[in-house]
Design a protein that fits this description.
single chain, 201 residues, alpha+beta, Aminopeptidase, nine-stranded mixed sheet
């Protein structure tokens, strides 16, 4: 049924139902587990047209991640994901570990600068099965509303289209992040799986 048990602290037990199979839901009901968090997998199918590259504002530069960006990236990431239980807590050690992981090299890691200061990023991932992933995309709150998210998304999808030879691209997003789900839907992504975290207290 795709359950992965995890225990974070003695007062609470958390477990994931990947795909949220009906049998898993029934089992959760029987044992008094409650759905606490839903993570959506969304997929942009192969063969869809690429996104138009927006015109950059004066002072905005999109480039790949470079040595020396660590501190600025971690600051932007923490601000962009202040409410996220995992991504917002990323540390320097975690960043280095991810950068050395297969499919997560700096060649697919794009950052946006405004007048020389890091303001957003789009980190892509290549999967062994040939698919691409919008691994994480974020814009610091101070720079939101300037189209950086759309610009970074377009640049990342262009890179994935070239690197995967046009294979499917997936991403994960919290189900309660309605603005992000709506945006990804407009960009051609569709919901292909729901993963649910159940909690027993």
């Amino acid at each position: 049924m795709g359950w992965e048990p995890r225990c974070y602290r003695s007062a609470a037990h958390d477990t994931w139902s990947f795909g949220n199979h009906p049998g898993a839901r029934a089992l959760a009901d029987d044992y008094g587990w409650q759905a606490e968090r839903t993570l959506l997998q969304m997929t942009r199918r192969a063969g869809q047209p690429g996104l138009t590259q927006p015109t950059l504002e004066p002072g905005v530069v999109i480039r790949t991640y470079q040595e020396g960006d660590e501190a600025a990236f971690l600051q932007v990431n923490a601000a962009a994901f202040a409410q996220h239980p995992e991504q917002g807590a990323l540390t320097a050690d975690g960043l280095h570990e991810r950068l050395s992981s297969p499919g997560l090299g700096p060649e697919g890691f794009f950052v946006a600068e405004i007048d020389g200061s890091l303001a957003g990023f789009h980190w892509t991932k290549l999967h062994p099965d040939g698919r691409g992933e919008v691994y994480v995309i974020g814009v610091t709150p101070a720079a939101q509303g300037r189209g950086l998210g759309n610009t970074l998304m377009a640049r990342g999808l262009e890179h994935l289209a070239q690197s995967t030879r046009g294979a499917d691209v997936l991403l994960y997003v919290e189900a309660d992040n309605e603005p992000a789900v709506a945006l990804y839907s407009k960009l051609g992504f569709e919901i292909t799986q729901r993963d649910v975290q159940y909690t027993r207290r």
